[in-house]
Amino acid sequence: MKLRDFLILLVLCVLVFWARLGRIGLIDPDEPFYAVTAQEMLQGGDWVTPKIFGEPQFEKPVFYYWLVAASFKIFGVNEWAGRLPSALPGTLMVFLVYAFTARVWNRRAGLLAGVVLASGLEYAIMSRLMLTDIALALFIAGGMFCYWLAMEDPEKRTRWVLLHFAFGGLAMFIKGPVGAIASLLATVTFSLVMKRPHPYRGRALGAGIALYLAIAAPWYAVMFWKFGWAYFDAFVVHENIMRFFRAEHHSNNHFWYYPMILLGGSIPWMPAVVTACSRAIRSGIRHDARLTFLWCWLLTSLVLLTAAQSKLPSYGFFMFVPLAMIVALALDELWEKGFRDAKERVVVILLSVVQIGIGVAAPFIKLAKPFATPALLFSGCLAVGLVFVWRARVGGWVIANAAATIALVVGALTFSAEHVEAYSSAKPAAERMYQMRRGNEPLVGGIFLVRGVHYYTHDRTHAKMTVIGLREKPFKWTQHDLPVIAGLDGQGAAIGLRAFLKQHGSAICTVRRREWTLYWEKFGFADPATPIEWSGDNVIVRLVDTSPK
Q1: pLDDT band for position 479 (cuts 50, 70, 90)
Q2: How far, in Å, CA of 210 to CA of 158, rounded?
Q3: pLDDT tier at 478 (50, 70, 90 boundaries)?
Q4: Which residue among 310, 337, 364 closes a domain?
Q5: Are residues 101 and 244 in the same domain?
Q6: Are the beta carbons of 407 and 374 closer than 8 angstroms?
Q7: What was the pLDDT predicted at 151?
Q8: Mean pLDDT, to the nearest integer, of 64-86?
Q9: Do 330 and 476 fall within a single domain?
Q10: How big is the CA angle at 449 (ends 445 and 452), to the nearest 5 degrees?
């Protein structure tokens, strides 16, 4: 790797992934879930069984919790340390993509691939969050790259096959079978399309399987031994099989969901994505086995995730790796040969204008007004890029697009950080609850916020959170060992809440705006002597028993 390329990618990664990484409180509900589990692992000393609120939870394998707990131990329990196990794999991925693309194509394509990947909007944002998907993407990509090298480098085939299986074992250990399924679909499809033999043969295959099992199997075996069918039902059936066949987020379950995620999540590279897809459709991809490999990886993953009924943006995170490389190759060709025709140039210009318009519109949209400054900086950089597009100067366009993402991310965490935190994290509400609390007054939270409030208050109050909701088992699967006040349509909960308040006198409560206005406000439990406060979309209120004595 050339020193210049290394420094360019390093500066980009530092600004996009690491700058002000711990500025925003943990984002509900997922980040507190991982943080509380890792914190309990560190405090309790049980590094085998993930636990939350003292009880085993089986949603994810233990590897990610090890990474977070280790980071907490080294750097302290804070947001920056919690997000390090995502920002670091996100950074490593950029350099891995550079190295592979530069080796298989050329150095400029490698640099473009690294820049496109790092500055894509979804990749930039999610590499800042506590999610298993970033490390999963790194392991899937590492395995796919090793598979290609095993085909292209017969003398070192055994080494590459072993590394391929090692990455596969790590993918299994970080999130389960999705990594193996996605990789297998991609490699088998490529072999069939190109009629090329796969490298899984001979001693390398047996040794690779043994290495895979050595990495992935021991912990799963221990969990099955300790918990038996309870673990099988929770992790295998619910977390994998049922999520494939049953939608947990019904509003996301559409065939166009992931194509839109890929397109929108690629901003500011949306014009280049459309260009790359258009060129693949018009010219085909089978003339270049390397490009076919990337398209087989992307399209089989897209089909797999679209077939799955449960859909979230993070599930498709690993698809941005082959997409970034495909886009980089289109940019490399554009750099070398220019636009193929006037129509292609017009499409790129129009889509660039659309992207600029998104940022310019921010000051006029109520929800986006707090982001006006970073959005306008974003659009300003894209406008400079549009000038370079007009003049067919690809290098300037790439620099301007990367600068746009830096401006948006760093700008949002500088000018709009308080707004982002208020609407995404329970931290401000938890801090206010702690300040309002009198003596041993209990803390009550809605299901969306209870983990975050616990994370930010428990070490200081040692109070056990009470959950308020509409069901006796308010959480979809992992039921937390917390007291629950619940009842259908709020009526039962009102009775339970009244009894709770008679016992304790009062409580500090936070729930989301919709829950408060639909269910709890009408029962009149708000203390008239204490003003109701708001933190973003969360209400903070002291509840008292207002029934006649």
Answers
A1: low
A2: 13
A3: low
A4: 337
A5: yes
A6: yes
A7: 93
A8: 98
A9: no
A10: 110
